[in-house]
Amino acid sequence: MALQQPEKDHWSQKAYSTSASFVPELADIIVQWLNPQSDDLILDLGCGDGVLTAKLRNSCPSVTGVDASTNLVFAAKKAYSAIPGLSFHVQDCRYLDRWMNFQEGAYTKVFSNAALHWILRDTDTRKSVLENTYKVLKAGGTFAFEMGGAGNVAEVHTALISAVSHQGIEIEQARKLSPWFFPSNAIMKQLLEEVGFTIEKMELEYRPTRLSTEEHGGIGGWARLMGAQFLDGLDSEVKKEAAVKEVCELLKTVITHEEDGSMFLGYVRLRVLAKKPA
User: Looking at the predicted structure, is the pLDDT value of residue 6 above 60?
Assistant: First the structure.
């Protein structure tokens, strides 16, 4: 659920719940694919604030959540530390093999929701993330995940590139500021099979998603939170706020439903169920 970055922690539980509380609420399909059982040991990659991780614990004896955000892991521990069999750890998932608890064959299932498009952004570590995921699974284990797929949030992605370039950043550099990797089915299948996984099920779904109407939420809150890496490319708060304002103005009529004023972003979800051979 959260970006795996080692330097600056852009995430806070308050901002996440204000602008992206819909993320764990819309995970029913991938949780069904995961199909947690009473004997499962599950690792949640990019667990964020632990809301969904804790729900998984209701169906199995042990769930371990890892995330690079110290802020979100602190929130998860504060909310759910009293639940037996549930633990949370600060760990950049790009380097899972550096985690002190890393152990080959430790889990029956690995799960990830709305996190891998951040984790896999770095081309230098993309393959090793999947290799390490493969290693931590027991033989016959399941890897079930949902992430942004090709074309995900294309309207706001375009608007962010445009807005920061209008604040003095070259267009090529603006593109490089994007913190996301939104793969097609074909690329994801290739990456998984290269490290040994077999694909059992895969789908790409266009799922327009309603934005929060809370104060400090909406498209402005979304851009500040999810697009923080774009904004960090600018050298002053004035420029950052000008960029957010431009994003809001550009998208105002594009994403607004006239009948009630609600705003929707064009989410595209890539879901995959993969297996490590027995």
Answer: no
Q: Where are the alpha helices (DSSP H) in the chain?
A: 13-20, 22-25, 28-34, 51-57, 70-80, 116-119, 126-136, 154-165, 171-176, 185-194, 218-226, 228-231, 237-251
- Kindly list the distances between the CA atom of residue 191 and the CA atoms of 92, 117, 155, 242, in Å, as whole numbers in the listed order: 20, 14, 27, 39
How far apart are the C-alpha atoms of 213 and 63, rounded to whole Å?
Answer: 32
Q: Is the pTM of this model over 0.85?
A: yes
Tokens of 156: 């706001």
Q: What are the tens digits of pLDDT across the range 157-196?
A: 999 999 999 999 999 999 999 999 999 999 999 999 999 9
| Cα 161 from chain centroid (whole Å) | 20
CA-closest candidate to residue 120, choices 202, 203, 179, 54: 179
CB 140 within 8 A of CB 276: yes
137: nearest Cα among 193, 199, 197, 187: 197
Cβ-contact 29, 271 below 8 angstroms? yes
Q: At what angle do helices 218-226 and 237-251 cross, to 10 degrees?
A: 130
Give residue 39's Cα distance to chain centre.
26
